[in-house]
Predict the 3D structure of the following.
Amino acid sequence: MGIFEYAPAPESRDLANLKPQYRPFVNGEFVDGSGEPLKTINPATEEVLAEVGTASVSDVDTAVKAARKAYNGVWAKMPGSERAKYLFRIARLIQERSRELAVLESLDNGKPIKEARDSDVPTAAAHFFYHAGWADKLDYAGYGPNPKPLGVAGQVIPWNFPLLMLAWKIAPALATGNTVVLKPAETTPLTALVFAEICQQAELPPGVVNILPGAGDIGAALVGHGDVNKVAFTGSTEVGKAIQRQIAGTAKKLTLELGGKAANVVFDDAPLDQAVEGIVNGIFFNQGHVCCAGSRLLVQESIAEELLEKLRYRVSTLRLGDPLDKNTDVGAINSAEQLAKIKGLVESGDAEGAERWTSPCPVPERGFFFAPTVFSDVQQSMRIAREEIFGPVLSVLTFRTPDEAVTKANNTPYGLSAGIWTEKGSRILWMANQLRAGVVWANTFNRFDPAAPFGGYQESGFGREGGRTGLEAYLDV
Amino acid sequence: MTATTSSSAATATPSPLTDATRDEASLRRFLHGLPGVDQVGVEQRAAGLGTRSIKKAAKLWAIDTAISMVDLTTLEGADTRGKVRALAAKAMRPDPDRPDTPRVAAVCVYPDMAETAVEALRGTGIHVASVATGFPAGRTSREVKLADTKIAVDAGAAEIDMVIDRGAFLEGRYLEVFEEIQAIKAACGDAHLKVILETGELATYDNVRRASWLALLAGGDFIKTSTGKVSPAATLPVTHVMLQAVRDWFVQTGELRGVKPAGGIRTTKDAIKYLVAVHEVAGEQWLTPDLFRFGASSLLNDLLLQRRTQADGHYSGPDYVTVD
């Protein structure tokens, strides 16, 4: 009997049309930023992908001015039906260039190509399609007649879903008549700059979308700019708090989508094999770099052993490696810094007495990789149960009764998402009402749709993105 | 088949599970106590695994493995001895131009044709499988089913494919189904028993899981999806559920039992998707004809054509393989 070795099936890196240099996008043009250029690397190989020009604080001012001019001059007064045409065009262009975007995203971020191709890029296009549909219907969205845009939106996005988070931010802003200055994450600026090309291709009026690569200081300058009316941030809770302090007392509207430590609750009557799939999808999707990842598994004690056995077997079949290979399930950790953070938290798990199990899968020697890891015997008091790890590390806790499950699930400063696994419909409804989380999935996990609002409680932030509720964050209502 | 498959299961139900079959009520409690199957989840997983990329060496290996797992089948009212002999010849030399082509696992025929098949395949190591028990409906008395089995076994069939009484199953008369499988298993003697669940008629994945366990508890060496006479026949998600059942059985008892999807698997591409499922859902040790079979007639030719394509670098077309 041979061993069933799948053939490597790497997507061609050439599809990404990688250029040696990328530049900021301001007022419809690619310009030389006056910041220090940064090098963006492929986390799977540690090779430099490209040099990216960054913005300085003065560039932020130029970009905001361009956005203001476009807002006053063209975008806000354009009929919604016309704005919709641009959004539809952008959506179609994302689809047309989907392979290029998927490969580029995988190279820059380290995520498996199958996720970039099957999830990130199509969902990004879907957000533009969905919001294009709203652009001419805002009068009927339930906010009263003629709701007004806010003005210039300053948006700062994270590195875990670079293109998708851009779509979540830009699509509703444009649909509602706002103009945008967006700062992509320092380690993953490339797809945002290709998106800028798409804006040119779509002949979007200059200044409606501006993209400024840079580090945290540029984000802070953008958020703090006096002529920005709306701030939208997705990222860490720490930075979210800083932003909230920074703009306190101003008239700026703010939405924050921050960290999470989601409980994935499995009852003894759950469809176990699918629960295992959901747990895997909940924590190992995108290497666990998901703010709503189901990183805290709460299992009913009576089935804990059985479930863990199934889970370990399933996790051991996950294939870790070259993100561009279609057979890869778990890709690379985005940066050395993030890898160090994951390692630190895992060590704390060991030190605090949790039982660590790591998948025996081979780990590439180069690049930032971390083998899927499951901690059992985790207690609420341990750091790995309280802090967001943002990596492929699952903490398993147990509970005895539904009430205890609710108590433990809610015992966190976060509240972005939760999962419930049970065949009992009434229990799903009861739990969903008790759980303090923005999204509660039942018998599934990590499912997204542009029509479904997404957002958090407590330290996971406030405001919603997506759906009719998400539009409200960009309207004066 | 080799000794890796348990053939003593019917006589000694493993102790942790003995209570499950003590009486009708215990059996019902046990089967309904199995974890449910979420339809959306299992279908999503099946679709996801279908996208694994199998090429070059892996594909050649998969094709040869799939060929060696085929139960080459003819189950027509119009079957003749000539047809069965032609099929037997094909089983022995699937691709006459390529002597390195593996042989199939078995030839599967109706009981009255078992003798012809046994004669034609004597000394080749290829098993004769026979669909007994009033195939495909199974709507006949226990006596007739046992007699049907006896005809096949007496003729030398090494494998019996029985159909379960779906009527009894759907009415919830689980113990009756259980006892019938046990009785047929006893009548099989040394022959291996494949239990056809006819999953298309069981309709829900929960039922597929319960029927799988019922068949395993009763001593079936294989659980098989379908007769091929009912639509839908084998599907990937159903096969996933059955692979999970044999894996769970192995974890609980240490015994290895097999799975056979049958009906509707016609292309190499499909067959490879099943092998990926075997590999990732049950585990690598199931990737053997002892524990996994394809019930198929037209699949073999596509496997042969793809095998040639891999070797020659171009597709040659259906005229280059035999029609039998």
Remarks:
- Chain B touches chain A at residues 35-38, 40-42, 44-45, 51-59, 61-62, 65, 241, 244, 251, 275-276, 279-280, 283-284, 287-288 (CB under 8 Å).
- Residues 1-11 of chain B have pLDDT under 50 and may be disordered.
- The beta strands of chain B are 70-73, 106-109, 127-131, 159-163, 192-196, 222-224, 258-260, 294-296.
